[in-house]
Amino acid sequence: QVQLVESGGGMVQAGGSLRLACAASGRSFSDTNMAWYRQAPGKAREFVAISGYLGTTLYLNAVKGRNTISRDNKTNTLYLQMNNLKQKSTSIYYCHILESWGRGTQVAISS
Fold first, then answer.
1. How far apart are CA 28 and CA 2, in angstroms?
2. Cα distance between residue 91 and residue 3, in whole Å
3. Pick from 10, 25, 21: which is nearest to 85 by CA?
4. How many angstroms separate the CA atoms of 84 and 75, rounded?
5. Average pLDDT, the chain
6. What are the pLDDT digits (tens) for 15-63?
């Protein structure tokens, strides 16, 4: 059974940076796509970025150029480096692999 545990969230000022991590377990993930989603208060969950198992990446336009998704297949860990954070980045960030979701990590950006 796939289990995902996110970490790295917190409260930072606008313009700051955070690095999120998702520790995955239950199988090898080197042959799967791995993605980040987020859900802001009162809004639907939305796609943020995906790391394809062939090395491709894709980003939500709103975060392109400020966020970088990466993965370590040896440790089954997915990362999301977020720079120049904006208040609208305030959300719970979720890791999504295959059919599984983590519980999320809270990111709060203050002015």
1. 10
2. 21
3. 10
4. 27
5. 97
6. 999 999 999 999 999 999 999 999 999 999 999 999 999 999 999 999 9
